[in-house]
């Protein structure tokens, strides 16, 4: 292995450490993150111009593991979601349901510990008792979902929002994690998943005749280091399952693809948006995916009844779906609130029809990439880590222009509360994508915007 390859890998790992440090110290964290992402992308591009060496996959995976290490040295930075994950797993191990109880419920006081509840001991009374009730009024939902200084768990007065496969993951991690370790078990698990996905991408890229080192665009990404090893976001598991589903579909294993896609939807609901990309005449994959997703809810439905929907109605209320509006930052630039949801719905249906129409005409990885990316641009969700699966899909599909969408999401997140600025940031990302796609499809387009089609069709 050449000195340039070693230097590039070590530099990428050092950049991840720098991002974690900047986030911890709040030194312009999102700007540093986006700049670091661009630098790492340049490093990966330069590395792919070097001879691959003897073990390119091992090289990429080893550096990916190094990139995850800095995040494991601190508590979660970008959000407190991991504390909720740890709590949900602990509740399930106790024989209760996180859909039936909120974290502050005194009925679960015996499960409190100083890490998750620094201001509330098992003998203290929180004053919260009984099954959760999520109101429909936006103001009431906002008031109910505020944080409480007695616990590190976010929204401790509302039930969980996470679907059953995510809950199974939380439970498995909680089973082997001591309470005193807090979120470390989840961080380690997320870091491991990120490294496994790096290996999966590298192996699949080589099978398709492409340079496996492009998998470093995922594995060495400072965004992945921040949201996996540090924040332990469950979106990493969703990304792994989505990529596995796409690979299975490309290898003509529709039932396996359906099981994996349904499992991904059981982690985060967003993968359901990819169903049109898997639709064929036989409909095997979509039916298996929906069946898997529904079946995952059945045990919780028996245990919690209608409470199994958790905080999902409240979340949709906060995002503006209950009053007919939508928080879409791009649509907000040109449409009044009452028209945004209709416009978003029309765009979503149009994209679904296009994805079905494109079935068999382009690699399924490409369809999933633009379908998922376009969905993020239409809805512009508040939380930027929702874009993690898009990073993996862009690498697999060879459509790296879509990487600007998750990067833009972090810049928009830093501008929270400035609606016009957020909209312009997302619009700029959309413009980059549209321009690149237009250049790719122009007559006699150069190869710099694409990878060989024959390689993608494997």
From TrEMBL:
It is found in: Cell membrane. Keywords: Cell membrane, Membrane, Transferase, Transmembrane, Transmembrane helix. InterPro entries: GT87 (IPR018584). The chain crosses the membrane at residues 27-47, 185-203, 224-249, 255-275, 287-312, 339-357, 364-384, 390-412, 424-441. It is a multi-pass membrane protein. It holds the Pfam family GT87. GO terms for molecular function: hexosyltransferase activity. GO terms for cellular component: plasma membrane. Belongs to the glycosyltransferase 87 family. This is Uncharacterized protein DUF2029.
């Amino acid at each position: 292995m050449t000195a340039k390859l070693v230097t590039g890998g070590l530099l990428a790992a050092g950049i991840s450490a720098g991002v974690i440090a900047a986030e911890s110290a709040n030194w312009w964290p999102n700007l540093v993150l986006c700049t670091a992402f661009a630098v790492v992308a340049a490093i990966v591009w330069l590395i792919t111009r070097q001879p691959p060496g003897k073990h390119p996959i091992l090289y990429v995976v080893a550096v990916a593991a190094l990139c995850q290490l800095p995040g494991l040295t601190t508590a979660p930075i970008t959000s407190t979601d991991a504390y909720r994950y740890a709590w949900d797993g602990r509740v399930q191990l106790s024989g209760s349901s996180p859909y039936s109880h909120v974290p502050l419920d005194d009925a679960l006081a015996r499960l409190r510990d100083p890490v998750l509840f620094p201001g509330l001991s098992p003998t203290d009374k929180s004053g919260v008792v009984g099954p959760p009730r999520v109101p429909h009024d936006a103001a009431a939902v906002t008031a109910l979902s505020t944080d409480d200084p007695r616990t590190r768990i976010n929204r401790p007065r509302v039930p969980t929002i996470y679907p059953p496969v995510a809950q199974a993951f939380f439970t498995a991690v909680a089973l082997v994690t001591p309470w005193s370790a807090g979120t470390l078990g989840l961080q380690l698990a997320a870091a491991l998943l990120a490294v496994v996905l790096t290996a999966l991408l590298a192996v699949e890229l080589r099978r398709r005749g492409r340079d496996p080192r492009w998998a470093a665009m995922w594995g060495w990404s400072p965004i992945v280091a921040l949201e996996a090893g540090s924040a332990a976001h469950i979106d990493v598991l969703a990304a792994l399952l989505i990529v596995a589903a796409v690979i299975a579909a490309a290898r003509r294993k529709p039932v396996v693809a359906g099981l994996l896609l349904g499992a991904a939807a059981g982690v985060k609901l967003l993968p359901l948006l990819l169903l049109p990309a898997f639709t064929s005449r036989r409909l095997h994959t979509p039916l298996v995916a929906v069946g898997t997703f529904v079946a995952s809810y059945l045990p919780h439905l028996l245990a919690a009844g209608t409470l199994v929907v958790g905080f999902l109605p409240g979340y949709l209320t906060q995002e503006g779906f209950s009053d007919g509006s939508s928080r879409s930052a791009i649509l907000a630039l040109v449409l009044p609130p009452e028209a945004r949801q209709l416009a978003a719905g029309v765009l979503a249906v149009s994209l679904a029809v296009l994805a079905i129409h494109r079935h068999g005409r382009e690699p399924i990885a490409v369809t999933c990439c633009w379908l998922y990316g376009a969905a993020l641009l239409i809805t512009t969700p508040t939380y930027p880590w929702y874009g993690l699966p898009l990073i993996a899909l862009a690498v697999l599909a060879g459509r790296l222009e879509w990487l600007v969408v998750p990067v833009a999401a972090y810049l928009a997140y830093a501008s929270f509360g400035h609606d016009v600025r957020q909209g312009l940031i997302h619009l700029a990302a959309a413009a980059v994508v549209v321009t690149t796609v237009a250049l790719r499809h122009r007559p006699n387009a150069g190869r710099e915007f694409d990878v060989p089609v024959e390689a993608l069709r494997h």
